[in-house]
Write the structure tokens for this entry.
Amino acid sequence: MNVSQRIIAVQSPIIPTVADLIRANPGTISLGLGMVYYGPPREALERVIGFDQHKYGPVYGTLELLDTIASKLRSENGIDVSKELRVVVTAGGNMAFVNALLAIADPGDEIILNGPYYFNHEMAVRMANCRPVIVPTDELYQLQPALISEAITPRTRAVVTISPNNPTGAVYPEADLREVNELCRARRIYHISDEAYEYFTYGGARHFSPGSLGGEHTISLFSLSKAYGFASWRIGYMTIAESLFESIKKIQDTILICPSLISQVAAVGAMNAGRAYCMDHLRTLSEMRESVREALEGVGDFCVVPPTDGTFYYLIKLDTDMHPLCLVERLVREYGVAAIPGNAFGMEGCSLRVSYGALNKETADEGMHRLVQGVRRILRRPGRFCHGIRRQPPLALPNGKTRG
Amino acid sequence: MNVSQRIIAVQSPIIPTVADLIRANPGTISLGLGMVYYGPPREALERVIGFDQHKYGPVYGTLELLDTIASKLRSENGIDVSKELRVVVTAGGNMAFVNALLAIADPGDEIILNGPYYFNHEMAVRMANCRPVIVPTDELYQLQPALISEAITPRTRAVVTISPNNPTGAVYPEADLREVNELCRARRIYHISDEAYEYFTYGGARHFSPGSLGGEHTISLFSLSKAYGFASWRIGYMTIAESLFESIKKIQDTILICPSLISQVAAVGAMNAGRAYCMDHLRTLSEMRESVREALEGVGDFCVVPPTDGTFYYLIKLDTDMHPLCLVERLVREYGVAAIPGNAFGMEGCSLRVSYGALNKETADEGMHRLVQGVRRILRRPGRFCHGIRRQPPLALPNGKTRG
């Protein structure tokens, strides 16, 4: 029995792969999780007591949650939800991206991702039979608008930006996002702006929403998963032009019917607690961030840690020929610590995404100790064998195009 | 800005369209809802008290729910979940269908649906750039295996059966399902068996699960939405061959990451209450079914009601040239009652899906009174105008193929 070609072209999800490794090696500390250490605010959990809405809700979300989102978008993002712009609640940010993609692109169309990319974006593009075109970011993981412009062809349907960025932590300056957005407007393609980590900026970095610039060409994606410790509840949302609303309704009706109502009820509570809830936790994350950075300096010369100002990730580059998944496998087996291999994000060479968001301070410190010790020892005595893991060649080529 | 061609090819979801009509006409009784009148069992609601699992869960569902499902499949469906067969929890039955489709079919491939079809299946097939091939059922809405066999081409990837059937209520005999399943096995294509309404049979009708026949070519889809009054919680599940497991994980990771954990926790409670919970309510539905049938006899000669033994639908055929959506619009505006126009299911001519599942006895009786009165009066004096609704041509052709 055959498996579809489109799914063969999609990389295996890396998170479950690493999770399997961790499960097989109890006691492993995971620096791989794309989650925060805290759960939802009290306001969210209290609202679901006595929940009694068991029938299907509207495809696009409950009016109560839509109103809550519209207020937040207006006051925090400068996005005016009026007749020309619609909000659609989704079962998480990934679904919002899939919705957008299916609504705007046909098989063979091209979607520009900035590399390193978020793996689920690249997977979604291939799943939709579109072609991911990877434009590299610079040494500091910042956008290169000139390269983006060059990569646009008649088949290009959208440029995707993620700021603050997963996996790099980069926060894109307003000027760069404006430039990309204007480029998309001029070339009549969509700008898909993923803002799942909008609250996670440090120091002087400031989040900017391209949706605030107006125009029907911007699709903005948001998630409650990180800000409100809401990962398991599966609630995200998107803003789209009115002209896409009918299409998005078709897609979400077919895939989901509606986002889970108990999660939507809780989401209203979370958003009522609001940004301040996340800000309280951001102070803790900021401290962890500093100690993770200090620890990474202990790895030595063969480790480059580009400085970034957002999320709870560092994407570190290691000077070795070792495949990053082999390195992760050895780190787990021999040192009891896991990170995400950079090839999952289209990185060439050996790199690791190190996440400290899901851990308490003590565990993160111990995890970093293991990581630094492990990387130093393994890379000074690199092993010659890599058991049990099929090598995946890197997907991004230096010319900014992808294979195949 | 463009909308994708694939989405233009997808029909607009009918349920929200009718819901809009109803909202604009307060007091309307809806005989259009594909839901039951009851909510989840106490066991489900009690389990979510103090829920505290806020991080992502496994892509394929929690071990606890998977175990619960495996026991149920073994004891009730005769499906043995062993190494060769996997269960994946989904955010509803629709998502299970989309997962299956993307995993087995490429653009241009054909999927055989039995007509009238479930609209979200047809929408999913088009969304995936595949071609729905509609094989008509007979006068009693029963399968025609010989026609299915004739419709198979080298591009065919699957035959989809739904039993008990939405929208017709037909329960397919074991012999017919065995024949279709054997046909699929012999032709090396998948048999996708949608069993969302497995508990909803009446009289002597008995549900049969083709998955019990073994073999990697059967994909079985299930849902908690109807049996446990679980529509808003979005939990379904699917059984697939081990050979499809990796593909399904890729797809669900990309679209959803994981089904909502609070819904999965509740689902375990619901399934512990078990089939008996649904059976208690089925007695009520059975009585309503009788009175709906009696009421429909009052419409007169120009109404054909094929007798069926399952679900909570009747798909009635009306002898008129009127477009069914125009009829529904007039029924809502003039008589305060709604049903689903049959063209959404690919029916030619004028037909209506009448659902009594979501209503209490009194409301259903009043709704049927309005429907019978409305249909009688409107069809004796058919209006010449249909305002505000764009006609959608029927999608199924008599030769069992679709347009385009």
Q: What stands out?
A: The first helix of chain A runs from residue 5 to 8.
